[in-house]
Specification:
This protein folds into two domains: 2-32, no CATH class; 36-150, Glutaredoxin (3-Layer(aba) Sandwich), CATH 3.40.30. Helices cover 36% and strands 23% of the residues. The protein has helices at residues 26-29, 31-34, 46-57, 74-83, 97-100, 102-105, 113-122, 144-150; strands at 2-7, 10-16, 21-24, 37-41, 62-66, 131-134, 137-140.
């Protein structure tokens, strides 16, 4: 039999046996949620929905993050840029109205990488989605074969 309880503000899972009670601290009991990856998405995006369905079908834990409201930090964006071998266009959502805005599109070639990442961090709609950067996994957009390879499926 198992049961869970809060102890000193921490969640614990108890395994009750004929011999005694063994408590598993929260940090162990919740490993799956601690290590679930963040997937930055836009709810109305069909590609994002496909990616989430793909993850669900394989039982891969994730945490949805609304990319417009909570865009990836400048630091995360710089890491993604490095993972994409400095190819900025791979992390820009070139289909968005924001990207096609002449004020943005015409400025991009003149921006430094640092300025471009600052722009992305301030305007989540400019970022290609879904966006996943977790450990060695660096994914933008959804291509099933890329996701399968990156996530060991």
């Amino acid at each position: 039999m198992t049961c869970s309880f809060l102890c000193d503000g921490a969640f614990c899972l108890q395994l009750v046996t004929g011999r005694g009670i063994f408590a598993i601290p929260r940090r162990i009991a919740l490993l799956k949620s601690i290590y679930s990856m963040k997937v930055f998405i836009y709810e109305k995006c069909g590609t994002c929905r496909k990616a989430l369905n793909w993850l669900d079908e394989r039982g891969i834990a994730y945490q949805k993050v609304p990319i417009r409201e909570v865009p990836p930090s400048k630091m995360l964006l710089k890491k993604m840029l490095k993972a994409k071998e400095g190819q900025r266009k791979k992390i820009f959502n070139t289909s968005s109205k924001d990207y096609r805005d002449p004020e943005v599109k015409n400025r991009l070639p003149d921006l430094s990488d640092d300025e471009a990442m600052e722009l992305l961090a301030s305007r989540g709609n400019l970022i290609k989605r879904p966006f996943v950067l977790e450990g060695e996994v660096a994914l933008v957009g959804f291509k099933e074969d890329e996701w399968a390879q990156a996530l060991g499926q």
